[in-house]
Amino acid sequence: MEILSTTEADIRRAAEALRRGFLVAFPTETVYGLGADAFNQTALACVFAAKGRPRFDPLIIHIAALDTLDRLADLSALTPDLREKAAILTARLWPGPLTLILPKRSVVPDLATSGLPTVALRFPDHPAAQELIRLSTGALAAPSANLFGRLSPVRMEHVRDQLGEQVDFIIDGGRTAVGVESTVLDLSGGIPCILRPGGVSRGSIETLIGAVEFPGTSGESKLVSPGLLKSHYAPWTPLTLHSPEAIAALPYTAGEIFLFFSPATRNPWLAEQTRQGVVPPPERIWVLSDSGTTLAAAANLFDLLHELDYLGVSCIRAEEAPPMELGPAINDRLFRASGSIRGA
User: Fold this and answer.
1) The domain 2-209 is classified under which CATH number: 3.30.310.180, 3.40.50.300, 3.90.870.10, 1.10.10.60?
2) What residue spans define the domains of the chain?
């Protein structure tokens, strides 16, 4: 495993490695991806092996030019209405943290799509990622660069610590900006449906194309998209998810970490603990967003969970985010990180 920079020379070197069938982890605006040539069956198999990922869980293919979309997706199989919606979304939200599920063309290997007739496609909004894709094969299968089911990586160090020698090269682009994975929108059926909330809010999508279905977090479902398993995105430390009301009523217990959404819940809770003669250590009390915004909380989520996971505590007690903007994406990740177990 070798660490590369985002210089042109290093990106060219990484692109050549991808063309030769090697694995390259690289930054996007959401999380780091584990990249492989989307048309190379052997390289795709190495992605599944490196992550310990089951082959029934399809991969997202990343592109860096809109004209690649028609090469991989059979848009003619969509209804005229869905074709129009796809055109609007790609024009307005690509590049960006939005993945579209579309009917696939035969050029896409079945291994990348887990044998499904659909393909998950995304155009990332990150200059290093775009240049890497363009200089390699124009399409990279790139799930998050972590062990399957574990915390997604938002720094080079997270990739290195989880995958180590399983990856050939890591491009270090610093911490990612969005901090949660892309929103996955299924356009292959009759009605657009959000399968996974992510870096684009439901409101942003509906402003452009009208109402979309959003079944919400419901555990196991048909795996036409990554990130739908009941237990996913999990730290090694057990995590329990609580409503704002529930976490506010909990007493502090030594050996646990409290992760509040913002100071709005933390401060009254701390005041009550103090009134009862309890002074929790500062290193055991954290907030996702000092400003109380879901954008900041999403950017901090995985980075903070990685940090807390190193502390060797018995439990992380996390507060739900408010259900606005990127709140559903944050809660989806926390819900799956908890193994769908909610605290009282």
Assistant:
1) 3.90.870.10
2) 2-209, 239-337
Cis peptide before 95 (omega within 30 of 0): yes
Distance CA 269, CA 256 (A): 15
Locate 59 and state its tokens. 């991969």
Q: What is the mean pLDDT of each run of 10 residues along the chain (344 residues)?
A: 97 98 98 98 97 94 97 96 97 98 97 96 98 98 95 97 96 98 94 96 97 71 54 86 96 94 97 93 95 97 95 95 96 88 52
Domain topology for 239-337 = Rossmann fold (3.40.50)
Q: What is the pTM of this model?
A: 0.92
- Amino acid at position 89, single letter: L
HEC sequence for 228-297 = CCCCCCECCCCEEEECHHHHHCCCCCCCEEEEECCHHHHHHHHHHHHHCCCCCCHHHEEECCCCCCHHHH
